Amino acid sequence: MINGLFNTSGVQTLDGYIQTPDLAKTLEFSTLLDREKIDTNKAVFFANGASLNKLRATSRETGTERKLLEGNDLQGYTAYTIKDTLKVTGYDIKAVSKILYKDPVLQSMTAKFYKDNYWNKMRGDEINSQLIANEIFIFGVNAGMKLAIAAAQMVLGVTADGKFGEQTLMDINSCDVKEFDKKYDTLELTHYNRLITKNPKLKIYANGWRNRAESV
After folding, report:
1. Is 140 within 8 Å of 118 (Cβ atoms)?
2. What are the residue ranges spanned by the domains of the chain?
3. What is the model's pTM?
4. What is the distance between the alpha carbons of residues 24 and 21, in angstroms, rounded to a whole number?
5. How far apart are CA 13 and CA 28, in angstroms?
6. How many angstroms separate the CA atoms of 29 and 205, rounded?
7. 6: nearest Cα among 116, 144, 105, 124
8. Would you give the end-to-end CA distance of the chain in angstroms?
9. What pLDDT, in 10s, does the model give residues 156-193?
10. Quick one: pLDDT band at residue 68, thresholds 50, 70, 90?
11. How confident is the model at residue 18 (pLDDT cuts 50, 70, 90)?
12. Percentage of residues in the chain with pLDDT exceeding 90?
């Protein structure tokens, strides 16, 4: 979705914009922003990949090769994906956090990203223990979900293929949670120590990694 082309800061919604985007609707929203005295020179749009691709494929007018979105320009506005937010702030995590905190749309996009790419891959909604789910999820975000799932399988004593199937789910939901937690933390720390051994410069992250592993 495009941040700003639905209700935000009191600006009227343009229903169905991304389903049937066109130049008239894009310009209409610009008028709505002006009416609300919002500085359109500082307007930024956040979009997911599918929405960006749709806008890049939609002609501005019949008979022209120009598209609604060309490069990162949406009729005078700048369009960013979530990843671009880091670039805009010079990879300043605190600045990105402030942007995220103030933008419910970006929060929703970020939550969807983590749910689709991490939580759903580990079938988080089907895991009975929130502690175990948190363990796998946090390690997955840091080290990759395939490795996080494989680590869980190693704890359970099943084939560590990194694929979360029915057997893995059944074993997780029937295991001793405290025992799982203890063994999983050990595997996490072993992984991080191995990274530091290969690249000593990563030692600056050691305390954070250890705290993250042991706090869940």
Report:
1. yes
2. 23-80, 123-215
3. 0.60
4. 8
5. 11
6. 45
7. 105
8. 34
9. 999 999 999 999 999 999 999 999 999 999 999 999 99
10. confident
11. confident
12. 37
* CA pair distance 137, 144, nearest whole angstrom: 9
The tokens for 88 are 């805009």
Q: How many residues are present in the chain? A: 216
At 85, phi and psi to the nearest 5?
A: -60, -40
Task: Specify the fold of 123-215.
Answer: Chitosanase, subunit A; domain 1 (1.20.141)
HEC string of the chain?
Answer: CCCCCCCECCECCCCCCCCCCCHHHHHHHHHHHHHCCCCHHHCEEECCHHHHHHHHHCECCCCCCCECEECCEECCEEEECHHHHHHHCCCCHHHHHHHHHHCHHHHHHHHHHHHHHHHHHHCHHHCCCHHHHHHHHHHHHHHCHHHHHHHHHHHHCCCCCCCCCHHHHHHHCCCCHHHHHHHHHHHHHHHHHHHHHHCHHHHHHHHHHHHHHHHC
